[in-house]
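Below is our example:

___
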Amino acid sequence: MTKILLVDDESLILYSLSAALRHGGSQVATAANGKDALSEIRCSPYDICFLDIHLPDANGFDLMKIVREISPSTRIILMTATDLDEAQMNYLRHSGGFYLPKPFDLEEVRSIVKSIQTASAATAIDA
């Protein structure tokens, strides 16, 4: 079972993403800010973290760096309703992260999760 952490300050996004991903068989936890997200990651490893770039107490790019230090195997999907500049997109590509523009389609979310699960399964088989 894939463990997913959703980090967003919008309760509707947390609710709808949680429901969709739980329906797909994943174990889902949520956090509404960076502090709670880091606390959750420190307590339990996650396979995937959906991370809003604009949180009330943190920047998603800064949080991504900390999450990578705490849990290097966690795959990160940055979400935002604003466009990313070229430097941000390059950083995201080089760090192995994913980008999910808001508003998003839940099928797109499921597709990203499935591709991460498939890649993880292939890596486990090769190891």
